[in-house]
Fold these 4 entries.
Entry 1:
Amino acid sequence: MSADSARLTLRQDPATWRALTVFAGYRFFLAGVLFFVFYLKLPPEFLGSVDPRFYASVSQVYLLIALVLLVFTLKRWGYADTQIKLQLVIDIVALTMLIHASGGLQTGLGSLLLVVVVAGGALVPGRLAAFIAAIATLAILLEVSYSQISGDGATKYSQAGLLGATFFVTAWLAQWLSKKMQTSQSLAEERARDVANLAVLNQHIISRLQIGVMALDAHGQVTLFNESARHLLGIERSIPGFKLKQAVPVLAEQIWLWQHHSPQPFEAFQARPDLPLVRATATKLDSGETLVYIENTSAMAQQAQQLKLASLGRLTASIAHEIRNPLGAISHAGELLAEQQSHDVGMQKLTGIIQRHSQRVNSIIETILQMSRRKTVEPAAVVLATWLDRFISEFRELKGAAEQDVDLTIESPLAKVAMDPEQLHQVMWNLLENAWHYSDPDKASPRISVRLAKSEGEIVVDVTDNGPGVSIEVQEHLFEPFHSQRQGGTGLGLYLARELCQANGARLSFLPDELQSSRFRISFPGEWQEYLA
């Protein structure tokens, strides 16, 4: 490091100012001790013994200067290098005069100059430290010379020379130790910065992970979690420090089973009906904490769904012909039998049963074939506000509904989602068809409410009707195939709607509310969204 760069560092380095402040505090304390010991006539008695008046004047001035320099240092006025050089020279001059007024080097006060030299070696760079040692040595030699000229006794040049040599050695040692300490401090600060940067980087990575991360202590208290974990588990708190059992009981139970070595502790679950299906895994850390990973199974479910639908397509394509041919024969035979036995009321009733159930079976086959013929998912950017407005106008027209019967609320007008438009149409039509069927026309409008909004980082579309709601028993089988309370229904509508949503990376769920109305929600996860607002 050059002299110029060293001086620039001294001017700007806060550590140098802190060290100088400590030394200024020491100077003020030393000046106070030298002054008050003399005025209170405390031991040692040799202080000021040769020239009391001169000692009193110098000690007073030195105490005042020490106070001023302490204030200057605390305020960090001026440049640090200038302050250091000025203060060290003042110390050497003042202490040399006090030593002379107390009887010279035989009093042992020369050791006070060693502290000044050590401070010079620690605070100033390079040759300046040797310069401070040279000034201290010169001051001692001048004091000895003046004492000899004034005729106070034996020559003390050997003692002065030995003390001067000690000054130079001390300055060099202080310089060497100071460099070692500065190197160690620089290394420690660099390591601390690296650790801090690494911690910030880790925090940034964890916070941006799509996988939820959560840390628990030995008592089941959450000590850390990222945003993904908060959204996937529906945690309302934004800071850790709560019991997992209170926030997500089902996950707390799974972790308890894992800790007690259950063979299959972790199963897919939903923290709330409107949240995605997730699966957790856990690992034990050396610190005793438990690290939990929460993974959204939507992507895996989407891939599995594609495979399942492809298999279903091959299966239905192979057996549809074999089923529909005998079914057609049965239906045709029932029609002929009904014509031949038109006079028999009992026979007409039986043939009517044959026709109705034949039509029901045919409807089921048509729905399954529709699923098997469905083209590969081709997602496209859909502006939901515009799309929903056109769709609901079409639905009103086909149902002959008034405008107030089907209400549309747009809370996120510029939201885009990625979904196959034809399959989105099929899903929404199924939901609105069910809502229209189960709604109550005698109640106040609207019979159906459609809402587009943002919720916890997702775009959601809610479809709600004013009907009697869905019973708890039916909710358990709501999305199962061939399960329907609707007269003539196949029980495949909601099942197919959920399958289509999963194939497109979305999520269809049923949300009961306090009014017991039926509310279905399509949720488009964040990784599939594009916000323009």
Entry 2:
Amino acid sequence: MTVRRIWIIAILLFVALNIVGLGVRPLVVPDEPRYGIIPAEMVENGNWLALRMAGFVYYEKPPLGYWFTAASLSAFGHNAFALRLPSAIATLVAALVVAWMTVRITGRRDDGPLAFMVQTTTLAPLIFGSVALLDPPFAALVSLSMGALYCGCTTQGRVRAGWLALAGVAAGFAFLTKGLLAFAIPGLSAIMFLAWERRWKDMITMPWIPLGAAAITAAPFAWMIHRAEPGFWNYFIVVEHFRRIARPDSNQHPELWWFFLALFPICAMIWTLAWPNAWKGLRDAGEWSAGMCFMTSWIVGPLALLSFSSGKLPTYLLPIFPPVAVLIVLGLRRAHSSGRITLNRAAIIARWLLRLCAVASFMIALVGGRKFGIPTLWDSNESLRFLLIGVAFLLWAQLDAWSWKAFDDRKWLVRTTLAPVPILLTIPFFFPTELFPASKNPWPLFDRLTEKLRTSALLVTSHEPAHALSWATGRYDIVIAGSASEFDNELDINSEQARRIKWDDVGARISQARATSTSQSVAVVCPTSEVDRILQTAGVPVVDTRESDGNLTVLYWR
């Protein structure tokens, strides 16, 4: 199997897993609509420096990540595929960095596509690479910075200076995507590596080139943002960084210190199962190479840093998976070629467990999930979906058996990587939409009423479905009732006060809009629990249309 053929397989694998199903499943509320309406408003207004979320000032993140999405929306239109494409491209970049680093460390060109495939089939990069978030672009830029740092740490002279400058440029762009972690992750990893190798002088002299390059890269954009949004940097640095670390609120997801340590093996599936075998190869390496030490520092340093922060989300782990993929390929190839990996009892048991999962899926498809106490997952074709899941598990088991027939370590690893692909392919197509309440999956309701919602003189909603409502209608003048949550973020901007009201004030706003508007159409999107409260408010006319879907209701007055 030639290197070119492995690369063809690797690229086809990426397209199948990360591109084909990109626009299939519904957007996840509120994150994906949030990261859609900000760049969509940039495109509509033509002002790419204005940080607005449904018309409200939004200072939680710098604009570079939004610019990527705005460019995609401009090119491919207002749809889920275009919204998620920047994350998929960023995931591709991170996988290419993994391939580059692996070849750089081992000197073997065939290791590159193998590492690319391991990164592509790792659960967290696969899942988050198909979600509209800022974390995949941030992780890709951090990976580029780390790769250039490694090259700078292992070269001399002008070449070293060039690599260090490139690391700084990538870190500068990462900062413009998500903030100071762009410097903390590469900086801490590099310091740990240099300390490991006892290069004390380099710990003092090396940081200046990347820091200078990062400053030169970020400064012009930072100044433009400051000119356009004078309060941005004060809010972003003070509130979004220092307070998040010291005193996170409920919006910043506080978790215990060991949260990432427990979550990391889960997010690294399916390759977590290969860690023991990979360790056999790494342990037998004798004296560790600089590359293996650098990859280990890249894992341990950021993991400790992120655990120190009180605010935690699974997506924060994305920059740590590239070195894991590199070490897995290094360890597995070495262990397999030395005969340390064989078809043992554990592998046979795992294969039979996959077949057991296939049989269980076939039984559920035959008699229905309710017979087994399984809640409804999809609104249609449940039996067919379980049948296909069973086929996917069965194919996984058979492909795993096929992989063990390869004696060459390269061919074995290619086949091992391809084995779980059938089940991974089902992820975007079998998204369990029926498990989510209407407030988290409002798309069926909004699709039926899009035209009414788009043309209403007044559109009122609570903060929960507001992101989705703005994305579905293209409206950026929505009035938020009840808790404003992130539509306020303590900014207290006077011009926005009229668009944040209490539920008790909804009736007065309805009457005012009907009296002053020529169309006299008003729509209120609210939790079903608030409907009676609104309709019983003095002065509220009889509602013309009422549409409900679970915990979400739309009231409409012509």
Entry 3:
Amino acid sequence: MQTRRSWLALFAAAAGSAVAAPLSESLRKRIAAFLETHRRPEGGYGWASDVIAHVTPTFGVVGSYRLLGLPVPDAAAVASFVRDNYPVPEIRRKDRPLWRLDFEQVQTLLWLGESIDSFRSLASTWKQPAEFTRQYELGGNPVFQHQAMAVRVRHLLGLSPSPDDDAWRVYFQARRRKNGTFNTTPAEDGSPGHVMNTLWGLLACECLGIELPPAPGLAEWVRGCQLPSGGFTYAPDAELGAVDDIAYTWCALQILDKLGAQPAQPEECGRWIDSLLTAEGGFQDRPGGEPNPLATFYALDSLRLLKREPRMPARPAARAPRSAIPRGADVFSIQVEAPGLGSPREAVLLAKTLNIHIWTAKNSPPGWIEEARRVAAAERVPVQFHIGDEEYGTYTAVEGHGCYSHLVDLVAPFENGAGKRMEKTKFPYPWSELRDTRIADLRKRGGRMIWQFLENEELTRILLDEAVEKGTYGAISTFHFGNENFLHSQPFLHRWYRRLPFVGLQDAHGVESWWWGDQLAGFTTLFIAREPTWEGWLEALDRNLVMSVRHDAITGWKTHFAGATPEMLRFLERRSASRRFWDGAGPGSRRPAASLVLLRPGMKFEAAAPETGLALRLRLWQDNTGAGIPRQPRTELVELTLDGKRVEPQLKESRNDRYYLYAFANEPGRHTAEARVRILDSGKVVTISTTWKEEETV
């Protein structure tokens, strides 16, 4: 590869101990003070909207300190955090690995002067691109960025280039376009490149020792990414989500510097970067956003490449709009994609005890929502049931980036319906078709699309930047069932803090709402409105008065927020004494110990409904898996009585369900059934009862 100097050495210079131009001491101190506001008790640094530390903002902070020419405070604690705290479950190092996170660990430790030998054993197994399930990407293309980061880690460890790299070389060479750019899909499909993937691809090729053929038009292609603002977007003449962004700008400047070229308008670029500096001393990703550590690193290094001293703008950078909390508003709860199968009566019970105001039922059969609404009205439980579907099998494609599923999750008002889903499954619908038909129809009906997940950062940026402008997606999911937090596995999502609402996504599985209790009790979405109606929910979404909260075993019984602004947290705190939305007193403090349901013939959605006579069905509180399957018991049955007489129910067990059942003949008069249930942790015995009246038949 023909370069002025080793590009890897060039990139290492970005981690140097000083900026390329002088920096005023007052501004240096202001930026450092901003960085320190992100320090967390774990020893690392976190995002402004997150209560715990994470490797990505820590990477940004440490890189920024190096560029400022300042030592990292308590560097030993930072290094210990980075080494020992991988932000997602360990299995993800093998299953669709997120190698960007591994790179940030290794690079941060090197910046701190620490050994990275402990990563050698793991990285030595990365001998080829990761397998990527076609269930998520129709072509099986792994995320390009992560493959490049794996190679960079191997290079930093001295494992690449080597004879073991053949599969890597084939992968990257296949994705280089004739003009020298790179993207996720193979170049043979004729699709365009992306400026971020071009940087990752060029870096990976140098790590692998690949001699790339000349691409004389590459510098001009990169120059063509510069917008009139002075910042860069991801490709020349791009239309879809084509905004100026500091990450795009940083990548473009890295490539141009490698090629010995300059932006067409370097002074305008410098002024644009300066305009992102906020009064706190941090840089935004783009105008109208919130300052954050990673954007600050990108901005400082971009200014180094431009040989420009950072300058405080005459006017503070414009921030994301702040919506005032309406007078007379309160805090309400919605569960997105909660269970839509099994017992409607138990769904109403869970909504009542867990303080759920809106329950959007996932992929429910015809009649289920109507029955849940009828039961809620009969029992005077203030919960509304609406639609919260995931349209499995629908894929959408953007040229060069792949064809992905899990991008059609929605909420819609029951009265209007969600509309007709796309007809074909496992079909590469162009994004424009999905947007202009399915999503447009949903919005007309008063529904909103919810962004579930997409590990392809480059494509996510395109689609969510468009969502900010056009409302294609109404919110971004964060907390998820199991121990997933999409803000941790895809930390780039923090870029849309205050631009798009953050919600929790139940994404319910299983056949009974009762066996989804751990998730329903563990995390929820809160919204601020005057009334807990669908209209109130939509207004809160549009005003970004929405946040997600998690407090369960996954968080160690500590409260984690996503998308919460300081104003919203203060508002919530003033109301926390009268309304709890999580188990602040510990495991199961709000959970019903059991559900006792009287079953009659013809109850369509109730398991074990008899053909004749009556039956009592008792489900006990147990932990559940992420597939909605009962596991560890939390309670035990002491006794079941019918009209004061003890009866012996039968235990019915299957893989997906577990309950006691007692069948009996119906007799005229008033009746009472009681179940005495012992809570195993405390030994406390509670009584669950139900009463009914049978009319005498003639």
Entry 4:
Amino acid sequence: MKRNGSQMVCESLLREGVEVIFGLPGGAILPLYQTLPEYPKLRHILVRHEQGAAHAADGYARVTGRPGVAWATSGPGATNLVTGIATAQMDSVPMVVITGQVARAAIGSDAFQETDCTGITLPITKHNYLVMNAADIPRIIKEAFHIASTGRPGPVLVDIPKDVFTEEAEFEYPREVDLPGYKPTLEGHPNQIRKAAELIDRAERPVILAGHGVIISHAYDELRELAEKAQIPVITTLLGISSFPDEHVLCVGMPGMHGMAYASLAIDEADVLIALGMRFDDRITGNPKTFATKSKKIHVDIDPSEIGKNVKVDIPIVGDLKRVLVQLNKRVGAAVHLEWLQRIEQLKRDHPSMLIRETEKLLPQYVIRQLSEATNGNAIIVTGVGQHQMWAAQHYTFNEPCSLVSSGGAGAMGYEVPGAMGAQVGRSDKVVWSVAGDGGFQMTMAELATLVENKIPVKFAIINNGFLGMVRQWQEIFYNKSYVSTAYSGNPDFVKLAEAFGIFGVRVTEKCQVMPAILAAMEHDGPALIDFRVEQEENVYPMIPSGASVKELIEEPKPERVRP
């Protein structure tokens, strides 16, 4: 049957099970938008900025496990997506991005709103396409979803010239994908798995370092089985948080630059390090030459290019983490590491990273702890990047799988508003809290209008210190308190701003107001915003300076601390 290119795109998206699209129209992609009314099963959410579309598609993908979809027009529409695409690429998030392009005859002529979208996004996509014939659209869309969601997930961009949207051709959707050069390895090599099991069985001080790959492969049960069977403490990367229950007796928390001191020290003392679905990011390793030097290392990852990239490992295993752990768990023997677990408990007593000092001041750590208590650790928490992100990672108790959503590798400020929007659309059954910095919030706060327009009930906790907090902290510690271009003296009244958007808003300045405000926001049936005016120069501790080793760990100065 004959279809034009726009109809082919919509038909193809339906075949791939797409329900939601985040986008913003413009000239080059207008034919596709004009076709949308023919396809009422495709819900389109009109964002206020294309960066919001990309981050929302990203947040949707993370909580559903299905590729998020974003649309934008050519030129500035496409380039506004770049930050969101790069974020998805760094964090292995499946996305399919469709952009309009100038008509085929105008490509290369510097036509109005022409940019080389495939060239620009080549380094930040898993793959991209420029479609020059409408007949190719079904095959390309099928391939795009397959590439985005298999192997190591990532974003795929499909750039379509305006006249291809209107060109007619026969529509035939392929049943299978034939990509001879793309065959991800799913099953781990049996010999490598056997060697790993033998090394684990011999270990006296093993640790598991669980990353985002556990969440991507839904290997929650397999990770827990390995940890409990062999009594191995579990440490999680930032994006690995919520892959293992925080309240589990074997959970040791997050290591690295702003992780718990005892987690970093446990890695340093371990004799076997089992790295699962993580890439030895510099925020974890610091100086790779001094990272975990006492340990033999097992590294399981579906992406062979990550093996040995940053840290040399002894037993590499390439494969889908869930499948590898199923086989590994069959071989690993039951064990008890009582002395090692007692040693970690001693490290926790000697380096109590999670204590909050007794003060009448409103501390951000206290806010996060109260939020965790109010939600019973069962909300989805979406953060931006900076101090508030680290406090959320440290002080919220994550009890459910895949409940922390954040920009990890790219570290994109502004993720907190649209990322939360996408997460809420993907999981309408869950309470979604955006823990936001006052700086990052202002980068994408226009999407508050999108939330109201679409009745998306995200709750916002703005950790408002009037600074670019993490940058200010570095200036305090490394630049003798030379606070250059980090103070925000012109912040808006966030409560009035919320009210201008038609959102419930409240300001909190004292500790006694925190819990009532959180509960009021949760009882409100629409989006809500709390402006927490916190201590301005509070720092995130512990801290390992960039490129340093665990021996250079900076712990919080020693004024009296108490457990809340």
